[in-house]
Amino acid sequence: MSTSHFISAQLQLSRSDFSLDVDLQLPGHGVTALFGPSGCGKTTCLRSLAGLERAQGRVAVNGNVWQDDARKQWLPTHQRALGYVFQEASLFPHLSVQKNIDYGLKRTPVERRKVSRDRAVGLLGIAHLMDRMPATLSGGERQRVAIARALATSPEVLLMDEPLAALDAQRKAEVLPYLEQLQRHLQIPVIYVSHSLDEVARLAQYMVLLDAGRVVAQDAVTVLLSSLDLPLAHGDIASSVVHATVQSHDATDHLSTLAFDGGQLQLVMAHPRAVGTQVQLRVQARDVSLSLGRPESSSILNILLAQVLDLREDGPGQVMVSLQSGNTRLLARITQHSARALQLQAGLPLFAQIKGMALLD
């Protein structure tokens, strides 16, 4: 990780009922998720990065030091090159959509502007809303305007505090594709607070797992989801994420063939993606079974050659197995009886049968 193109933060904060003590080394690109249970310090951490909470320590973004208490350096929030999106859109109710966005634009000196108003408006799909007042917008529209206003400041980093938490399922589904567009089209790192593992799996490439104000782990999302040392890789929620590319589509059976570094997968897609499109798939551990030999005449379409990396007990009579197919990690939750019958151990080659998977979109 380049020393000049990442986000580094060492922060400590104490209250009567909570303390934060974190050391973060985050990528200077893509989406990093701060994830953990309620009360673990996700929002406090984000607010401390922004300077909205006065934690002690040091914060540097892409080589620019925002805070260094050892050297008595402190930039107030309005002098930090950041955009902040709250749970609630927090738009100025007396200003139109256009004037709300222009407020963000005017905060940024002309020579530092990297994101034009038209670019922000286009990426968030809100051109038709420019003359509307906030009170006339849906929750999803308001949040998209708030994100556009934050982008108009041309931030070095975009901080998002559970931006979908206040939206119902329909409005979340409306906003999520726009969040995905941002990371594809803008080179602005995003730090994203969420308690939704589905959101994290869909949007983030890197994750910081927090608990009680401390960093439990920080690494690529695919690594943390499949690490048997962490709670994410246990129980009914355990799953893995597969990155794949659409290779072909059979219109007769509505079946798309997807290529990933461990081989090929087939998935029924009523609305197929164009060949070459990159997609993400979520595979639940409970939907993966194991076999020592390649099954013949099976209704299961996706049977992959894999290798056992590790296995752990996962509740009464259950075992979680960590697998690798190519460079992709998978999880399988099977019975203790089956693990013993197959004599599973690290390094054993076998076949993983994937009974179901979901497209993350």
Largest sheet: 6 strands, mixed
How large is the radius of gyration? 23 Å
The secondary-structure class comes to alpha+beta
Query: Tally of extended strands?
Result: 21
CATH architecture of the largest domain: 3-Layer(aba) Sandwich
**For the largest beta sheet, what order do the strands appear in spatially?**
7-8-9-3-10-11
Helix count, DSSP H or I runs of 4 or more residues: 8
Q: Order of SSEs, N→C? A: EEEHEEEEHHHEHEHEEHEEEEEEEEHEE
Strand content: 35-45%
CATH topology title of the largest domain: Rossmann fold
CATH class of the largest domain: Alpha Beta
Overall mean pLDDT stands at 92
Silhouette: globular
Q: What percent of residues adopt helix (DSSP H or I)?
A: 10-25%
Q: Spans with pLDDT under 50 lasting ≥5 residues?
A: none
Q: How many domains, in number, for the residues?
A: 2
The CATH homologous superfamily of the largest domain is called P-loop containing nucleotide triphosphate hydrolases
Distance between the termini: 29 Å
Brief sketch in words of this structure:
With 361 residues, this protein is an alpha+beta fold.
Could you characterize the architecture of this molecule?
- The longest helix has 17 residues, at 169-185.
- This protein starts with 5 loop residues before the first strand and ends with a strand.
- Helix 2 (97-106) packs parallel to helix 4.
- The mean pLDDT is 92.
- The strands form four sheets. Strands 7-8-9-3-10-11 form a six-stranded mixed beta sheet, with helices on both faces.
- The protein contains eight helices and 21 strands.
- With 361 residues, it is an alpha+beta fold.
- It is globular.
- It has helices at residues 42-50, 97-106, 117-124, 139-151, 169-185, 197-203, 221-225, 336-341; strands spanning 6-14, 19-27, 31-35, 56-61, 64-68, 73-74, 82-85, 157-161, 190-194, 206-211, 214-220, 239-250, 255-260, 263-268, 278-284, 288-291, 302-313, 318-325, 328-335, 349-354, 358-359.
- The protein folds into two domains: 6-233, 3-Layer(aba) Sandwich (Rossmann fold); 239-360, Beta Barrel (OB fold (Dihydrolipoamide Acetyltransferase, E2P)), CATH 2.40.50.
